[in-house]
């Protein structure tokens, strides 16, 4: 009985995925885009990265405490004090990697903060590529931080 239920669930998820790819979309409150290019950008094997179409729609708090749902962070203590060093970045990495619903993005991410943190966030390549494909400003922010370091390595100094 449980095997039949699992098959039915997987079939439903596949149908939803194909419907999304066909352009039907997600029936949530925020119209999101799962980035699809020549090959799909994956957050994890078999799961496309979820990307907000407009960074200005992301207006979550950046101070205080947040509690992530168990489906996003599988630890007994899921409450983060965003004022603690590194915790805001940690929450952003988790949400960008684990988001499955548009509400995950709007509830935990702030667009301006995301742009500010983007160069230092270490994300799976598929997540980074999907967000940068949709929001070229994120790629520019990442490259702008790395260019000065690259220039230092390419300089040659001569003694006088």
Descriptive tags:
single chain, 160 residues, mainly alpha, two-stranded antiparallel sheet, 6 helices, 6 strands, 47% helix, disordered C terminus
In short:
With 160 residues, this protein is mainly α.
Give an overview in words.
With 160 residues, the protein is mainly α. The chain has one domain. The protein has six helices and six strands; from the N terminus they run H-E-E-E-E-E-E-H-H-H-H-H. A two-stranded antiparallel sheet has the order 1-4. Strands 2-3 form a two-stranded antiparallel sheet. Strands 5-6 form a two-stranded antiparallel sheet. Helix 5 packs across helix 6. The longest helix has 20 residues. The C terminus is likely disordered.
Which structural class best describes the helix and strand composition?
mainly alpha
The sequence of SSEs as H and E is HEEEEEEHHHHH
Question: What proportion of the residues form beta strands (DSSP E)?
Answer: 5-15%
Radius of gyration: 19 Å
Identify the strand order in the major beta sheet: 1-4
The number of strands is 6
């Amino acid at each position: 009985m449980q095997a039949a239920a699992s098959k039915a669930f997987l079939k439903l998820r596949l149908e939803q995925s194909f419907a999304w790819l066909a352009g039907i979309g997600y029936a949530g409150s925020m119209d999101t885009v799962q980035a699809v290019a020549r090959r799909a950008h994956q957050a994890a094997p078999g799961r496309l990265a979820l990307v907000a179409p407009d960074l200005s729609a992301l207006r979550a708090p950046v101070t205080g405490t947040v509690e992530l749902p168990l489906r996003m962070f599988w630890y007994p203590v899921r409450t983060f004090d965003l004022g603690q060093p590194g915790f805001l970045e940690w929450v952003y990495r988790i949400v960008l990697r684990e988001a499955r619903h548009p509400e995950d993005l709007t509830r935990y991410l702030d667009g301006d903060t995301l742009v500010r943190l983007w160069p230092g966030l270490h994300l799976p390549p598929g997540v980074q590529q999907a967000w940068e494909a949709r929001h070229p400003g994120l790629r520019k922010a990442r490259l702008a931080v790395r260019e000065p370091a690259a220039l230092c390595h390419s300089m040659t100094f001569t003694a006088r």
